[in-house]
Automatic annotation (TrEMBL):
Organism: Lactuca virosa
Classification of source organism: Eukaryota, Viridiplantae, Streptophyta, Embryophyta, Tracheophyta
Name of the protein: F-box domain-containing protein
F-box domain ranges (all copies): 12-58
Superkingdom per UniProt: Eukaryota
Classification via InterPro entries: F-box-like_dom_sf (IPR036047), F-box_dom (IPR001810), LRR_dom_sf (IPR032675)
Amino acid sequence: MIMSLQMEQRDWNELPVHCLVEVFGRVGIESLVETCPLVCKSWYEATFYPQCWEQLVFTKSPSLRSSKHPIPRLILDKDSWSDCCLVVPLDQTKYADESFEKFVKFAIGRSHGLVTAIVFHPKSLLKEGQIAWIAQRCPSLKLLVLPSYLSYVINFEVSNSICNWKDLEALQIASLIGLKKTIANIGCQELEQLDVSKFKGVAGDHEIQELASRICVFKHEGS
């Protein structure tokens, strides 16, 4: 009874900032934007700490546990898209496209370069220059899950930007022109998982197989 009363009388403002930051770094960006800042002043102020914005997951999906961190398993089949709930609504309207771009910039800006994971929804529409912009501002990226569709220009942005992420541990791409160049450009020695299982013809391409031979987990069609 006494403990119950103590819990009811707890002042949420009294929670240490380092505890709030530790928790907020795990709640997801939806809660960081819509819920946590509204509880009290100390919670609002804690959401400005860059450590809260290291994991930027713009979708909700089951997780596939790797040896070092959880890697969201995105099912890219059309029938499963309805199971993935977007943090911000994305349709084909110009407003929604611009709104998502602003949201990505906002979240990355809050991180002050500390982002370690970015996971896009399979149906996210990226704009030209967006990947290059992310590469410049997220040098410590360890996990990158890209949308299922990338325009011709963005394909080459990915290939050219991949060498900037020296600490990259996991990469998932569903469609990419210049896959060989991308694998060759991967300058990180930490990469332990590359998922290109949606590509066709990778299993029979010996050059790609050789380029990816140093990667611990190389997922491709037929593997």
